[in-house]
């Protein structure tokens, strides 16, 4: 059975400025995407699909085609505002993309195997890809999905508070809910989430979602019909967004699908702001010194 990696790379990174997916962070000019694909290949993935904007097409092909040739199959699909189901149009004045659910739908015609979906600008660690690949090999139900649950303490920032989706699970480690905590930070080496004037301590071992999910190809059909519902309800708004995890949540609540939370102690780091760059470079160098990655990936 094949395994596909779906890389969501159409966002320009407004807070960051510029095409951060192409930032060279490794010692030989590697991007975070390079490390993600390298880890996916090691874990057994045999195809990568990039969701990009048409305007990035040449830059992506030039960057990845020559180095990935013969190592993994590649496909490029394009997220544009006007790529909508028949009968729908873009409301006048809308500039904001339609969200991660729409991005994922762009790949519907090129994915026919179980697939993992990741953010282009997040580093998830080799272990997480191994765990995702293992799940794909062992899970036979078309309606069983999974999410890699990172330890909260491994995802915090030294540059202030972060927003994280804290996972609630049942006795079988199936996801029941994701509670968005918009302000989590550290104080005197303790972790708190802040709400108004109050603060509540967390252990740091809570599982949080960093948008690394594993789906079966049939999920795309649910996504398609939910996107059409979304457009009917909110398609005239200029800033509404359609998220794939909301569709997974709806399926869980309707008992039409289950999502396993796969707990990992893999190290996560990401780039949100320019100030994060030196930290990421340092983290990568330290992994290379430990022997986790070669100095030159390809």
Layout of helices and strands:
Layout (H helix, E strand, L loop, with lengths): L3 E5 L23 H12 L3 E6 L4 H12 L4 E6 L21 H6 L9 E5 L2 E2 L2 H13 L5 E8 L10 E8 L5 E13 L2 E6 L2 E5 L4 E9 L3 H16 L9 H10 L4 E7 L4 E2 L6 H13 L9
Parallel strand pairs: 1-2, 1-4, 2-3, 6-12
Antiparallel strand pairs: 4-11, 5-13, 6-11, 7-8, 7-11, 8-9, 9-10
Summarize the structure.
The protein is an alpha/beta fold.
Which structural class do the helices and strands define?
alpha/beta
CATH class: Alpha Beta
The CATH architecture name reads Alpha-Beta Complex
H/E topology pattern: EHEHEHEEHEEEEEEHHEEH
**Assembly level:** single chain
Number of domains: 1
Helix content: 25-40%
By DSSP (H or I, 4+ residues per run), the number of helices equals 7
- Looking at this structure, what is the CATH superfamily? Spore Coat Polysaccharide Biosynthesis Protein SpsA, Chain A
Q: Indicate the low-confidence ranges by residue numbers.
A: 13-17
**Count of DSSP E strands?**
13
Strand count, sense and closure of the main sheet? 11 strands, mixed
**Radius of gyration from the CA trace?**
19 Å
What's the overall geometry?
Answer: globular
Portion in strands: 25-35%
Briefly note the CATH topology name.
Answer: Spore Coat Polysaccharide Biosynthesis Protein SpsA, Chain A
């Amino acid at each position: 059975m094949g395994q596909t990696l779906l890389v969501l790379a159409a966002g320009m990174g407004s807070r960051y400025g510029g095409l951060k997916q192409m930032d060279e962070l490794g010692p030989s000019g590697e991007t975070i995407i390079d490390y993600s694909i390298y880890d996916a290949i090691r874990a057994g993935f045999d195809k990568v699909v990039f969701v990009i904007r048409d305007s990035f097409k040449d830059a992506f092909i030039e960057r990845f085609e020559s180095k990935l040739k013969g190592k993994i199959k590649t496909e490029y699909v394009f997220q544009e505002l006007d790529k909508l189901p028949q009968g729908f149009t873009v409301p006048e004045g809308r500039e904001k993309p339609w969200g991660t659910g729409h991005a994922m739908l762009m790949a519907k015609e090129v994915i026919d195997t179980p697939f993992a979906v990741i953010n282009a600008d997040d580093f998830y660690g080799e272990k997480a890809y191994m765990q995702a690949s293992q799940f794909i090999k062992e899970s036979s139900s078309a309606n069983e999905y999974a999410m890699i649950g990172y330890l909260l303490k491994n995802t915090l920032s030294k540059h202030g508070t972060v927003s994280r989706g804290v996972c609630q699970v049942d006795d079988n480690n199936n996801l029941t809910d994701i509670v968005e905590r918009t302000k989590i930070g550290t104080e005197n080496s303790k972790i708190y989430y802040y709400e108004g004037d109050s603060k509540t301590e967390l252990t740091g071992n809570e599982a949080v979602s960093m948008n690394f999910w594993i789906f079966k190809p049939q999920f795309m059909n649910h996504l398609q019909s939910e996107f059409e519902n979304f457009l009917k309800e909110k398609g005239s708004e200029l800033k509404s967004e359609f998220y794939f995890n909301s569709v997974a949540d709806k399926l869980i609540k309707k008992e039409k699908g289950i999502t396993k939370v796969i707990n990992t102690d893999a190290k996560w780091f990401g780039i949100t702001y320019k100030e994060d760059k030196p930290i990421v470079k340092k983290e990568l160098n330290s992994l290379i010194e430990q022997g986790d990655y070669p100095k030159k990936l390809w």
